[in-house]
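Hi there,

I know you've been waiting on this one. I reran it after we fixed the sequence typo, so this is the corrected version. Both the input and the resulting structure follow.
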Amino acid sequence: MPQPQPLVLIGHGMVGQRLLEVLADRGALGGDGTAGRPVVVLAEEDRPAYDRVHLTSVFTGTDPADLALTTQDFLDRHGIELRLGDPAEHLDTAARTVTTASGHVQPYDTLVLATGSDPYVPPVEGTDAPGAFTYRTLDDVAALTAYARGKRTGVVVGGGLLGLEAAGALRTLGLEAHVVEFAPRLMPMQVDDGGAAVLRTTIEEMGVTVHTGVAASRVETDTDGVTRGLQLSDGRTIDADVVVFSVGVRPRDGLAREAGLAVGDRGGVVVDEHCRTSDPHVYAVGECAQTVDGRVYGLVAPGYQMAEAAADALTGTGTARFTGADTSTKLKLMGADVASFGDPFEAGATAVVFSDESEGVYKKLLLAPDGRLLGGILVGDAQAYGTLRPHTGRSLPAPPAAYVGPSESAELPGADTLPDEAVVCSCHNVTKGMVRAAIATEGLTDVAGVKKCTKAGTGCGGCLGTLQAILDAEGVVRSTALCEHFTLSRSEIYAVVRDERIGSFSELMNRHGKGGEGCTVCKPVVANVLGTLSPELGLTHILDGEQATLQDSNDLHLANLQKDGTYSVVPRIPGGEITPAQLVAIGQVADDFGLYTKITGGQRIDMFGARREQLPDIWRRLVAAGLESGHAYGKSLRTVKSCIGSRFCRFGQGDSVQLAVDIELRYRGLRSPHKLKGGVSGCLRECAEARGKDFGVIATAGGWNLYVGGNGGTRPRHAELLAADLDREALLKLIDRFLMYYVRTAERLERTSTWLERLDGGVEHLKEVLIEDSLGLCAELEAQMDRHVAGYQDEWAAVLADPAKLSRFGHLTGEPDAEDLEPGRGRVAVLPDGTEAAVFKDSEGNLYTVGNHDPYSGADVMAHGIMGTRDGRPVIASPMYKQEFDLRTGVSLDDPEVRLPVHEPSAPAH
């Protein structure tokens, strides 16, 4: 029998590779002795298909090989002949042949065009000058990276998705970055004016200058013809060494045009719902195709759906059709979440909007007159995206405000109301029913299992929250384990540490852990528990020995880390009461060290901008003035706010100032599951806002009322009355009991407000336990608080008195080796080229050296993060926003396109 002519695929990008995978999954390809059609792939680039969505990650150190989407084994197993670097140049549909650049003539039975798109470059002078770039390929990235070395300023023309990615790339390369966008706002196709304004503020805060409502008119060059700037349409010129054009793309339809295939008026090979062109033997998928709805889709998810439809037609089933796609998008641009779904610009729709410019958050939902969700925009906080997108075209199962309010407000409803046919993962076209079936048939218990089994969540990741919600709706019980290293919860860890008198993390891991180095979750929790129980365990300071390696950066340095890598210093001012001499001392310290000062809402003074090595000198001056640590850095008591009370106020019924001072001094330094705030008001006018605190006291004619479980912030909650008309002694005893019971039973990062809501019986349960003593704990709780009070010491003063603790505030001197480091805690060293490195040692003595520069925040802080393990891999968590990086490869576990440079452990030297 004559050998059948092959299927020829022109183009080996993401969509082309997806087509091959779908055909392979359906047994339609040959190889390994199985029957199936042969396939020949003609690729323009000299490398197989790779992930263009994460192309920008190469700028931050990702190895291009890590972006590969296929392997030689896959090609060999399925009999796929891949001709790299030999693009198709002529298509003869009558003869059914393709001629390549090398002159090779390839016959075909069926042909699929997957040629993608070209970057659009506006017709302005100078776009071909050295220093002017586009970037769509790995070669483009390599060329731009090489050229940018030693350059100072870059401009990106285009403020859409790709343009903002390019601006982030320039910033990563060390250039000052500008973005020029012709439209009046950034990302004009995805966000509205409100969302764009918030996005612009966020991006400008990251050091990128934005120019909107203006176009590029000419690339300025010097006498050698090299790029030196960009002239704008308003006459201004931006001095620049590099100009990157990222204005959009145009379908690569030249082969189809030459062959006489139908092409759209604005480009794109015209296809039907099966992705067939005007020639029944030729198909087109991805960015080169104009689909039946008249659109050309530039996103990968619609391309994957086209590949599914074409594969159905090629294998003879023909059930899948492509008639249009969901263009919902969720991505992270320079650290800012941006998402849009449905039609976010529907005219005449009812808009529900939440905007918090101070936090960089904007959310907008559009509703039809009948209440159906039409679309939405999320900037800065896209947590609700996975829940909202599948409900597009349907009525929401809860009031719209539940979805646009602050993310802490409640768990989002919705997954249980979706029908099985609802697509929950648009990247891989996975429905809720498919996820439910996989949970039932495969016994899946977590999101990781769902991802592995269905591919849902392995694309943009926007559906991960919905996948968890489906697991919940299917009755899969969430684990209460603290993390992968402990099956115990935070409250259970507290109990075993107290009952077994466990004095270290290592001892706890040996007795109750699952092995490993710990992580950014369990280490701070155990550190917090040990700090709370230090009087019971004989521990003296949070920076003693192994305890120091457990602390988050704030506790490690007894100061608050700020976004630029500097620290803020907050001395305690109990009840807001301060002497003139102490005010003068604070002012002199701030002036001498160049610190920005601000009076906080908690009635104390915050000093910003201190470098790590300056902290001990600042503390020394403050301690000499009679001040001490305000514990603003810890999960502990922060402040007890007071009004002026009966000392001066004509309405005052009690001395709120003195009581606030006494309460703050009694509970200072108490480590707790979350930060604690108190308030004391001298009368029912409530000027100290005591009912917005974790515990609040209000003076009455009969004594003091105690309120508990209040909260301000993004989820305000009024505290509830626990007891009324108490005298001072009874009041303090009841607060003792309340705080110690909370410390014992709350979970990780659980505020008193959410803890109280979780308690079965709520405040009535607290009355039974803390007033009626139903569990017989009251005396024990009071005694434990008394031991805390007796054992208190100022943490700043203790560091100043201990040379070993002071040494933590300097760099390594000399070449670092195992003797210089504590297991699990990093130190800063300096590379021979002058850049900072972060050096770590694990419990087995292995050294790791990575860049100290955090690619997410731009601050040099990685050495101060928590080292641990995740799935057996050594990782370091950024102290800024807790993103984790593999210490062996530098790759971010949260976003694989971001990575740290990795150095030989012996390379750094001071």
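Quick highlight: The two ends are 74 Å apart (CA to CA).

Best,
R. S.
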